[in-house]
Amino acid sequence: MHVVKKIEIIANSFELGKILDSLNKSGVHNHAVIRDVAGKGLRGTTEDLDMTMLDNVYILAFCMPEQLKDVVENIRPLLNKFGGTCYVSDVMEIRSVRCVASI
Q1: What is the mean pLDDT of the chain?
Q2: How does pLDDT run across 80-95, given as a tens digit for each residue?
């Protein structure tokens, strides 16, 4: 096991390509995308139509701790310009070296 950074981004689906390009530019090449995300923001406003129109995406990606600075530098300008939110946390990655079926 080793520590990696988990990157969670919720943004408008129209910006998905730009966000994925920024992650790729930062060296983060693997990700998962969940479409049609709705919710209420931490700001507590119920008028937040951006989070209720089901045109948002949730992007989940992981990177090594030393890559995080590049990720933040590339993602922050997009979020500032187009909106959205990004969370980063420490998680443990377990790398499997054997297929379970071979045990």
Answers
A1: 85
A2: 998 899 999 999 998 7
Alpha carbon distances (Å) from 45 to 39, 40, 49, 58:
11, 7, 10, 20
- Give the predicted TM-score (pTM) of the model: 0.80
What distance in Å separates the CA atoms of residue 71 and residue 26, rounded to the nearest whole number?
5
- DSSP conformation class of 36: E
More reliable by pLDDT, 97 or 51? 97
pLDDT value for 46: 47
Contact partners, residue 53, CB within 8 Å, separation at least 6: 38
- Find the largest Cα–Cα distance for the chain: 54
Give the integer Cα–Cα distance in Å for 43 and 11: 15
Q: How far apart are CA 76 and CA 88, in angstroms?
A: 12
Distance CA 1, CA 42 (A): 32
Q: Which positions ≥6 away from 90 have C-beta within 8 Å?
A: 3, 4, 5, 6
